[in-house]
Amino acid sequence: MLFYFSGTGNTRWAAETLARATGEQLLFIPEEQQGRCEYALAEGERIGFVFPTHGWQPPRIVRNFIKKMHIDHAEGHYCYALTTCGDSIGVTMDILNGDLRKAGLPEASSLFSLVMPESYVCLPFMYTDTPEKEQRKLAVAAEQLKAYAELIVNKKEGEVHIRKGPLPWVMSHIVGSYFNGKMVTDKKFTVDSEACIHCGRCVSACPTGAVTFFEEQTSEDLHNNAFTHSHNFDGLPVWHHDGSCTCCLACYHHCPKHAINYGKITRRRGQYYFGHTLSN
Ligand SMILES: Cc1cc2nc3c(=O)[nH]c(=O)nc-3n(C[C@H](O)[C@H](O)[C@H](O)COP(=O)(O)O)c2cc1C
Prior knowledge:
Layout: E1 2-4, H1 10-22, E2 26-28, H2 29-32, E3 38-40, E4 47-52, H3 60-68, E5 70-72, E6 79-85, H4 92-102, E7 110-115, H5 131-153, E8 160-161, H6 168-183, E9 189-191, H7 201-205, E10 211-214, H8 219-224, E11 236-239, H9 250-254, E12 260-262, E13 271-273, E14 276-278
The structure holds flavin mononucleotide (FMN).
């Protein structure tokens, strides 16, 4: 059983590759968290967690899911984790294992990171990679993933292949805690109404259903804080401000007109999603 989250597709590629190698079920956390989050394992089945690093921590949606989930008789099952990142992960895996311990689940004994194209562009010093760098990262990641898949298929314990980067504890617990506490918010998304072509790609790319098209609201809708969904995308995208957005930037990166921005800072930034690039 492999639980995964992905915004711009890097991690989906890694998760799908691992699920093919192990022959085990692939479960998308945003869909799973809508249900009971109760699972039973087949004999000898592995438990995998595969997710992008967000602010040197596992994304909030992954941490909340682990708090909620229950796996029957999980003890003794092989557990592994893989995170994709643009550069480094700090102590993301210690945080993950702390969450698993608190939830009464087995800790991941084998830990992997894959450096992949950068998706975070909302700070002054953060840019997408050049197309050349993206290609280099993807080629190395493909080789590494092949090797990691073999270790996972053979249930190798204690394999640790991660890039923590400098000051890992500080980056995760000080910088990362501030980042995930204060900067993971959908309140800064804007839409350029003249550039938007109402194609709805932002809505279909969003993994958590945090953005929909806004048509018109009746006074009753306004009173109930409810959105009227437009089926033909006549209006403009709106973010719900209800905590469902993980700031994965799938909406920003998939917009074919670069009409979606995060504050002013991303107006001149590149766009990327797995399988496609629109770089700076
Ligand atoms: C909100 C956010 C925070 C990020 N934080 C980090 C980070 O702390 N370290 C890092 O190396 N990459 C970071 N990245 C880059 C992503 O981890 C990386 O591009 C990842 O492969 C994206 O996976 P996805 O395409 O499955 O969403 C961040 C990206 C986002 C959107």
